[in-house]
């Protein structure tokens, strides 16, 4: 058993470490490009377009990318995605070095990088399921959450430091180097491919739209899965605006400045790292859904704590931010592992892309509603309402049999599973 554990762990973590470096390099580049756009234009519209350029590919291309990932060799998809992103980073670095870079050049590269990421994410998630034993998926999700926390905490200050000592094109070259670190292990380590279960309704090769419709039918076929997805999307709608409204809460309600806002962001990032490490070591409760629902209650309590804190008790907002960061990986990590464990391997790309597209699409909707809502009723009201609804949704989940029994129902139905080829 120890030999088997060492075998999968050695292969997987060799790939994982390379991917971790690549993601950190991408975070550095994202900061550098946003900073360059800020310095070059000083325009909020330019920055808003940059955000939109980064989101649209996941919303529009994501579902089709997932369908293609399920058709193609996922290892090759990751190699091509990482390589393409590195290539365009290299071209943009040349534009910066030659002095001919324009804002639209940055937009184009950000768009192409986002398209590459739309293919890379489902390929990596689906490959993880094929390389990691099911009972270890929650721990791996915890490590991924920790990595996200480290990126969000360390990339901005390191990116700011690098920009102050080296040029933007050299930061882009760092991304090229980290992409190579991700590609090289994939050239030598095989990733099992799932055996695709053909759609029995037709002998002809299905179109991409048929693949997507098949994934939607598949989601509906698992009792409780659709409920969990709608719960997750609605929680995303409630909680994403919290981060955007935090600067106004800190300045207008608490009367604080940039230093205090930086403290709030830093302790939240530290909480994410701590929560991810705990999940990586502990692995959560035996039922992954119990871990997620319990943590979602904690998320709601954290948002409520931030919202109800009086103006003279800023320390409560700091405690709430730590708790918010800490609970995030404990909510998201087991949920991701749950999806990886119950979703048929040949469906992983499509289903994961559909979920990512939905989560990405719901975020701007939440922001568009939260802004006028907060202007009308006050910033704190969104925190009160969002936190309370978050707690109620999670508590309701404990009393929905299909939700609490989703792992058992997925394992009991042979039509929902497929073994690796």
Tag the structure with descriptive keywords.
single chain; 421 residues; mainly alpha; Growth Hormone, Chain: A; 2 domains; 16 helices; disordered C terminus
The named CATH superfamily of the largest domain: MFS general substrate transporter like domains
* CATH topology name of the largest domain: Growth Hormone, Chain: A
Largest sheet: none
What portion of residues belong to β-strands?
under 5%
Write down the overall mean pLDDT. 85
Q: What is the second-level CATH architecture of the largest domain? A: Up-down Bundle
End-to-end Cα distance: 22 Å
Give the CATH level 1 class of the largest domain. Answer: Mainly Alpha
How would you spell out the order of helices and strands?
HHHHHHHHHHHHHHHH
Counting DSSP H or I runs of 4 or more residues, the number of helices is 16
What is the 3D shape? globular
Number of domains: 2
How big is the Rg? 22 Å
Please tell me about this protein's structure:
By secondary structure, this protein is mainly alpha-helical. The protein folds into two domains: 2-188, MFS general substrate transporter like domains (Growth Hormone, Chain: A); 208-411, Growth Hormone, Chain: A (Up-down Bundle), CATH 1.20.1250.20. Helices cover 83% and strands 0% of the residues. The protein has 16 helices and no strands. It has helices at 2-41, 44-60, 62-71, 74-98, 103-131, 137-165, 168-188, 208-221, 225-253, 258-282, 288-308, 314-342, 348-377, 379-397, 401-404, 406-412. Helix 2 (44-60) runs antiparallel to helix 13 (348-377) and helix 9 (225-253) packs antiparallel against helix 14. The longest helix is centred in the N-terminal third of the chain and has 40 residues, at 2-41. Residues 414-421 have low confidence and may be disordered.
């Amino acid at each position: 058993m120890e030999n088997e554990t060492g075998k999968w762990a050695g292969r997987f973590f060799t790939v994982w470490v390379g991917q971790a470096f690549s993601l950190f390099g991408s975070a550095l580049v994202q900061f550098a490009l946003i900073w360059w756009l800020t310095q070059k234009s000083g325009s909020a519209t330019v920055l808003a377009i940059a955000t939109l350029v980064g989101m649209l590919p996941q919303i529009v291309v994501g579902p089709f990318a997932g369908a293609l990932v399920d058709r193609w060799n996922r290892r090759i998809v990751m190699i091509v995605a990482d390589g393409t992103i590195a290539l365009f980073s290299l071209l943009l670095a040349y534009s910066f070095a030659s002095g001919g870079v324009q804002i639209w050049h940055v937009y184009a590269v950000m768009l192409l990088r986002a398209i590459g990421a739309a293919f890379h994410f489902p390929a990596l998630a689906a490959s993880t399921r094929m390389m990691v034993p099911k009972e270890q998926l929650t721990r791996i999700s915890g490590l991924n959450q920790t990595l996200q926390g480290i990126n969000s905490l360390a990339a901005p200050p390191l990116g700011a430091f690098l920009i102050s000592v080296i040029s933007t094109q050299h930061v882009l070259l760092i991304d090229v180097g980290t992409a190579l670190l991700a590609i090289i292990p994939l050239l030598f380590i095989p990733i099992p491919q799932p055996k695709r279960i053909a759609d029995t309704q037709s002998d002809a090769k299905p179109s991409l739209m048929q693949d997507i419709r098949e994934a939607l039918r598949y989601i509906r076929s698992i009792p409780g899965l659709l409920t969990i997805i709608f719960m997750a999307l609605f929680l995303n709608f409630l909680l994403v605006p919290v981060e955007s409204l935090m600067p106004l809460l800190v300045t207008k309600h608490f009367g604080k400045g940039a230093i205090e806002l930086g403290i709030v962001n830093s302790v939240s990032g530290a909480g994410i790292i701590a929560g991810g490490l705990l999940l990586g070591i502990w692995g959560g409760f035996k039922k992954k859904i119990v871990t997620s629902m319990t943590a979602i209650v904690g998320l709601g309590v954290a948002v409520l704590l931030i919202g109800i804190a009086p103006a003279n008790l800023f320390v409560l907002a700091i405690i709430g931010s730590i708790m918010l960061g800490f609970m995030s990986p404990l909510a998201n990590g087991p949920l991701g592992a749950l999806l990886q464990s119950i979703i048929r391997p040949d469906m992983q790309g499509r289903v994961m892309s559909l979920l990512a597209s939905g989560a990405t699409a719901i975020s701007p909707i939440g922001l568009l509603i939260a802004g006028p809502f907060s202007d009308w009723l006050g910033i704190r009201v969104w925190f009160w309402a969002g936190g309370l609804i978050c707690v109620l949704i999670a508590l309701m989940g404990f009393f929905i049999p299909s939700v609490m029994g989703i792992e058992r129902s997925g394992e009991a139905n042979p039509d929902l599973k497929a073994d690796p080829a």
